[in-house]
Amino acid sequence: MNQKNPTGTVLYTIEQTIKEYRKICQKNIQKLVSDITVDQCLVLIILNENAKISQIDIAKLIFKDNASITRIIELMVKKDYLTRETDELDKRKSKLIITEKGKKTIVLLTPVFKLNRKTALNGLAVDEIQLLDKILHKIILNCKTS
């Protein structure tokens, strides 16, 4: 049986693509590290690339609201992936520091992140990936300007 997607639009297919990608990412991560999620990995990657980034900016980058990112970070602190330190310049703020466990996890999972991307983009030519990126950015812009 050849069924169309429920909404009859490419937007549903985009949503399905994201969910399938996240599933394969989580499955591959779990093979090596059993107590971390895709979102928690994203937080580690972001902090590893920019140690001074704010929690609000992390939330924006991984498309989470402030309450969700707070819960994610609290779990990461409990699991010893991160620690919090009070900012010396502004005592109201805290800095997120990647622990040794967090650093080891990044090293361990870096090949998995690359494999996930390679698997998802398998069979696509560079020009197809560039075109897809361009089209998706047009959709994003359409939604932001409406």
Strands side by side in the biggest sheet: 1-2
Indicate the CATH class: Mainly Alpha
Beta-strand residue fraction? 5-15%
- What would you say the CATH architecture is? Orthogonal Bundle
Helix and strand run: HHHHEEHH
Distance between the termini: 37 Å
The multimeric state of the shown protein is single chain
Percentage of residues assigned to helices: 55-70%
Given as residue ranges, the uncertain stretches (5+ residues, pLDDT < 50) are none
What is the alpha-carbon Rg in Å?
18 Å
Q: Give me the number of helical elements.
A: 6
CATH topology: Arc Repressor Mutant, subunit A
- Average pLDDT confidence is 92
Determine the structural class based on helices, strands and strand pairing.
Answer: mainly alpha
Can you characterise this structure?
The protein has 146 residues and is mainly alpha-helical. It has a single domain, classed as Winged helix-like DNA-binding domain superfamily/Winged helix DNA-binding domain (Arc Repressor Mutant, subunit A, Orthogonal Bundle). Helix content is 64%, strand content 7%. It contains six helices and two strands. It has a two-stranded antiparallel ribbon. A hairpin with a 7-residue loop joins strand 1 and strand 2. Helix 1 packs across helix 5 (100-120). The chain is globular. The mean pLDDT is 92.
